[in-house]
Write a structure and sequence with these properties.
The chain has about 280 residues and is an all-alpha fold. It has a domain of about 80 residues: Serine Threonine Protein Phosphatase 5, Tetratricopeptide repeat (Alpha Horseshoe), CATH 1.25.40.10. The chain contains 15 helices and no strands. It is elongated and about 65 Å long.
Length: about 280
């Protein structure tokens, strides 16, 4: 999967600190996503000497992952249900079912799905991560933090940057900006090009009044191909606060040229820098 496509999937589960995230640049959802970054299942699916039932279920799950990545959640859910019917011991299918129900905002069924996946495979970091993000979306911050910790402690877990990112966003949502910043900084160390991490760090620092440091992160993002209307507008507000009028003007011209119909372009035209 390409980085852009992977980040589009991440955006299905990630939410910025009070701001809609990356719908333009990444074409996803939840952005932060993102998930805040959700494991969708492809990493779990491996060829091996499997029983026939597992092979058939895996084929269904591969189809479900493809539909989910394309935003066809209802079709994806149908495929997952068939995978589970074929092989009710397939933890990955319950994990993806939980992710789909999270997307559909049916958090009760999402939690049931993730818990069943963990009963079948208690060491799967992707499931712990997805359960943590579901808890965070439901405002259950303490169990969310615990689930993220379990993901990070899972043997062989390969998506630590994604989980540190989600943990940081969740901590800020819970009114814990300092731990949130530390978690986002850890995510940045592991994945310095992640736009959700860059945006949320810049936003957090800007809101705290540390605009010099905020500028470091937002410039990294706005100098990349993943800049969008939200990131450009945040960059304008940061440069404006730092009284760097020339840089703010350049970003404003870019915002108007690239995203003329965006809400952010309208705010820029009104000079609404403090909204």
């Amino acid at each position: 999967m390409s980085r852009r496509r992977a980040l589009a999937v991440v955006a299905r589960a990630a939410v910025a600190l009070g701001v809609p995230v990356w719908l333009a640049a990444l074409g996803g959802c939840a952005g932060a996503g993102a998930a805040a970054g959700a494991g969708t299942g492809r990493d779990w699916i491996t060829e091996s000497d499997e029983p026939q039932a597992r092979k058939r279920a895996r084929t269904r799950l591969e189809l479900a992952v493809g539909y989910f990545e394309q935003g066809q959640t209802t079709v994806a859910l149908d495929e997952v249900k068939q995978a589970i019917q074929i092989d009710p011991t397939y933890a990955a299918a319950f994990n993806l079912r939980g992710l789909i129900y999270t997307q559909l905002r049916d958090l009760r069924l999402a939690e049931e799905s993730f818990q069943q996946a963990l009963r079948l495979d208690a060491r799967d970091g992707d499931t712990w991560h997805n359960l943590g993000w579901m808890y965070c979306q439901d405002g259950r911050h303490a169990p969310a933090f615990d689930a993220f910790r379990r993901a990070l402690e899972a043997p062989g877990y390969r998506s630590a940057a994604r989980t540190w990112m989600a943990l940081g966003v969740c901590q800020v949502r819970a009114g814990q900006p300092e731990p949130g910043e530390r978690s986002l900084q850890r995510a940045f160390e592991l994945d310095p090009g992640n736009p959700v991490v860059l945006y949320n760090l810049a936003l957090l620092l800007h809101q705290r009044g540390d605009s010099e440091r905020a500028r470091f992160y937002i410039r990294r993002l706005n100098n990349s191909e993943l800049a969008n209307a939200e990131s450009l507008w945040l960059g304008i507000k940061i440069e404006n606060r730092l009284q760097n009028r020339e840089a703010a003007l350049q970003l404003g011209e870019q915002l108007k040229r690239r995203f003329p119909a965006s809400r952010e372009a309208g705010s820029y035209e009104r000079g609404a820098f403090h909204e």
